[in-house]
Amino acid sequence: MYKIGCIGHAGRHGEFFSRLFNREQLFDGYRFSYVFGEDEELSAEEKNQRFYHVDAYCSTADELIEKSDAVMILTIAGESHLPYALKAIKAGKPVFVDKPFAAAYDDAKAITEAARAYRVPLFGGSTLRHLKKLDEIRQLMKEEYFPFVSIAYRADPESPLGLYHYYASHIAEICMSLCGTDYRDITVSRNEKNVCTVVKYPHCSAVLMTTLDTELVNIHLIGKKSYSFDLNQDGCYIDGATKFIQMLKTGQPPVPYEEYCQSVRLIQDITRKMGALAW
User: Fold this and answer.
1) pTM of the model
2) What are the distances in angstroms from CA 106 to CA 43, 190, 262?
3) Can you tell me the distance from the alpha carbon of 126 to that of 170, in angstroms, rounded to the nearest whole number?
4) Which residue of 49, 171, 202, 269 sits 20 to 30 Å from the alpha carbon of 20, by its own alpha carbon?
């Protein structure tokens, strides 16, 4: 049995993944086995309610990494991803780093450079970028030219928990996946809690919108023909976990590392320009 360890108590991603592996048993031979967390204090009863039938709760990250065949870093705070990722990578364990992939571009570069140096496969970021419908959209963009691409999803720039980058990372990663990593500049505008960013590429412009008035991922391709897509995210955890398992089986990371780094840089650029604007 291939045993996966989870670092991080907070949030619901560990809960979702533990049920996919242990209750639904969607991936034969793979088990969500160990959990360690220092990001939120939980009682034994609370842990058992949140994580489905894990084998053990570890007392340190080092213990979890040693026992696990692969490690999922599911802490909410992006600042914690670098130190945990480096520990797992240096131990030779394949790693899943949850969104936001990192808190800063330099952290993202350090994680990906370590993965290359130690030849450890690395995966993570937004699970929404792996929705099956996006494969169809990517193929359409190869066949036709679209000077404008718009992507919208939920994020609150006034979140009391400071989680704007946590949710906005979804559209930043989808942007990198659809349009590429070679963006040149951005402009940002805001109307109350609605934020609009124009990402300028040599070949197109991507318009990224965050709002609390949508429940779906909305994507529009504008060219000689225009297309609109409303993506239901219900299957995103299965789609993301499937890509992770494929990486564990093949040793081949399914996402170019530069996409992780540039998506983190894009969120940094957006939040910096938002901070410079006077409301």
Assistant:
1) 0.95
2) 35, 27, 10
3) 5
4) 171
What pLDDT score was predicted for residue 278? 56
Strands of the sheet with 95-98, listed across from one edge: 56-57, 30-36, 2-7, 70-73, 95-98, 122-125
User: pLDDT tens, 135-192?
Assistant: 999 999 999 999 999 999 999 999 887 789 899 999 999 999 999 999 999 999 999 9
**Nearby residues of 220 by Cβ (< 8 Å), 6 or more positions away:** 148, 149, 150, 226, 227, 228, 229
Amino acid found at 278: A
What Cα–Cα distance (Å) separates residue 18 from each residue in 49, 69, 206, 237, 238? 11, 15, 35, 11, 11
> How would you classify the pairing of strands 148-153 and 205-210?
parallel
Superfamily of structural domain 128-232+266-276? Dihydrodipicolinate Reductase; domain 2 (3.30.360.10)
Q: How far apart are CA 129 and CA 133, in angstroms?
A: 9
CATH class of the domain comprising 2-126+236-255: alpha beta
**DSSP sequence for 227-255:** EEEEE-GGGHHHHHHHHHHHHHHH---SS
| Tokens 């399914």 -> residue | 254
What are the boundaries of each domain within the chain?
2-126+236-255, 128-232+266-276
Q: Where are the alpha helices (DSSP H) in 23-104?
A: 44-50, 61-67, 81-90
